[in-house]
Every structure is written in structure tokens, then in C-alpha cells.
Automatic annotation (TrEMBL):
<dbReference type="GO" id="GO:0008990">
    <property type="term" value="F:rRNA (guanine-N2-)-methyltransferase activity"/>
</dbReference>
<dbReference type="Pfam" id="PF04445">
    <property type="entry name" value="SAM_MT"/>
</dbReference>
<dbReference type="InterPro" id="IPR007536">
    <property type="entry name" value="16SrRNA_methylTrfase_J"/>
</dbReference>
<dbReference type="InterPro" id="IPR029063">
    <property type="entry name" value="SAM-dependent_MTases_sf"/>
</dbReference>
<protein>
    <recommendedName>
        <fullName>SAM-dependent methyltransferase</fullName>
    </recommendedName>
</protein>
Length: 259
């Protein structure tokens, strides 16, 4: 992978690009007013562009870039602030001061909502297996400037761990987190959605070890393990989750109560 600064980069952005290349074991190149297409065509490798407000990842096939964005968490927070409910918070029973572990972080929208609810007294951690995706989301959570101060504060409190979730779960002591959450994306009913193409190209999925991961989660969680999936999924029953039906949604939550 090649790392470059944005087209109108200052010295600080160029330095950030060099640091990103080092952290990601990639190659830094001076921009020298060359286009992104030039770097893709010349090197035939993915390109990471370090900009002032966001980092953009371009694959070598010329697809739309991937970049961090708070996504659905922004309007979900507004709804919570207005006294409305959130399906994840309802399913998890998350309260202020709780600790929450998301084993399938993705873009971190669920983590942001959980961080807002858990508050400063809580602890919210996300696990991402892909080092590049973990890096981009971590930097986005640290640097995204939001109009809503509650959104920005929630993002800053999140801890990101780049790891395989089974490996991480095995490293935890019993009852390390109040709630442990899984959202294994892109089951057959979701794969057709073009809106998540950039994330799909980066995310790493491992369904093979879900049985073992859920077993470890039941040991490492204190209150509840939560699992999100398509309403037709057989994994709820196979993994021992009690389904909370959402009549207006194709996505349901399953829970295992531990208290």
C-alpha cells in the first residue's frame, strides 16, 4: 500500500502521512501534485490519502474511496436525546456506567451509541481484525469534528483493539465486560447492498469460530451477550440466543441473559 498526503497538504499532513505509512508498514510517497489515479496506475497498489479532515482509502481497482464517517450514530443519538428508544440499547440493557465490548466493530456506529449511553463513567471497546480498517476507524473516532458535542465526546471515549475477537475474548478474565455484542455483517440477505461496498472490501469476517466466540463471551460478560442478525438467520437458535422480534425490521437481536 502507498500512503500520500492530500493535494493541498501542509507540512503537518505530510508528516502524518509518513507516520501512517510507518504504522501500517506501508510506503510513503511525496505527492508532488500528482493525481491519485497516477499513483494507482504507476504502483498498482491501494492508496491511502491523508487529508486534513479525513483519511481516504482507494483500492487499486478505482472504486469509490472508503473513509470513516459516524454514519447512523448521528441520528440515533439525536433520537436518544429526544427521549426515543434505540433497538441496540433496548436489547443490551446498557446503562450509564456499564462496560460494553463490540466484537465486530466495523465503522463503529453501534459503539458510538453505546459510548453515549454508558457515559464518562462507562467503558466502551471495539475489536477489529483488519489492521487498516481498525486504524482508519480509530483515527476517525479521534479526529472527526461533529456539530453535536455529545457525538464527538462519545467518539473520543471509545477504545479500539486490532485483534481477532476470539483471541481477544480468550485473553479476558471472567466477567470483564457487562455486555458483549456481536454483529456479524453481510449474511446472504445483506450482501446485495451497494451502500456498504467500501466497508465490505476492507472488513474481515470469521463465522467459523462463532460458536467458540459466543462461549467465551458468556464467560467474559457479566450481564448479557447480544447478537444481531437477519430475522431469517438460523444462528440465533444454533448459538442459543433468545430472539427479540422487531416487526418493522429485517434485523433482529438475540440475547443471552447471564444474571
Amino acid at each position: 500500500m502507498i500512503v500520500i498526503a492530500s493535494g493541498k497538504a501542509d507540512k503537518n499532513q505530510s508528516k502524518l502521512a509518513e507516520e501512517a505509512a510507518y504504522e501500517l508498514n506501508a510506503v510513503f510517497k511525496e505527492r508532488n501534485k500528482k493525481s491519485i489515479s497516477y499513483f494507482i496506475d504507476t504502483y498498482g497498489e491501494p492508496i491511502l490519502v491523508i487529508g486534513k479532515n479525513r483519511f481516504e482509502y482507494y483500492d487499486q481497482k478505482g472504486n469509490e474511496p472508503f473513509f470513516f464517517h459516524p454514519n447512523s450514530s448521528a441520528f440515533r443519538l439525536k433520537r436518544l436525546i429526544n427521549g426515543e428508544e434505540d433497538p441496540l440499547i433496548n436489547a443490551s440493557g446498557l446503562k450509564r456506567g456499564d462496560s460494553f465490548l463490540d466484537c465486530t466493530m466495523g465503522l463503529g456506529a453501534d459503539l458510538i451509541v453505546a459510548s453515549f449511553v454508558a457515559g464518562q463513567e462507562g467503558r466502551v471497546t471495539g475489536i477489529e481484525k483488519n489492521p487498516l480498517l481498525g486504524y482508519l476507524v480509530q483515527k476517525g473516532l479521534m479526529n472527526w469534528q461533529a456539530e453535536n458535542p455529545h457525538l464527538e465526546e462519545a467518539m473520543r471515549r471509545i477504545e479500539v483493539q486490532v485483534d481477532d475477537h476470539l483471541h481477544y475474548l480468550k485473553s479476558l478474565k471472567d466477567e470483564s465486560f457487562d455486555i458483549i455484542y456481536f454483529d456479524p455483517m453481510f449474511t446472504s440477505a445483506i450482501r446485495a447492498s451497494s451502500g456498504i461496498d467500501p466497508l465490505r472490501r476492507l472488513a474481515a469476517y470469521d463465522d467459523e469460530h462463532l460458536v467458540e466466540s459466543v462461549a467465551e463471551a458468556k464467560r467474559a460478560a457479566k450481564k448479557r451477550v447480544v447478537f444481531k442478525d437477519h430475522y431469517l438467520s438460523r444462528r440465533f437458535k444454533e448459538l442459543g440466543f433468545e430472539v427479540q422480534i422487531r416487526p418493522s425490521s429485517k434485523q433482529h437481536y438475540g440475547v443471552i441473559n447471564l444474571e
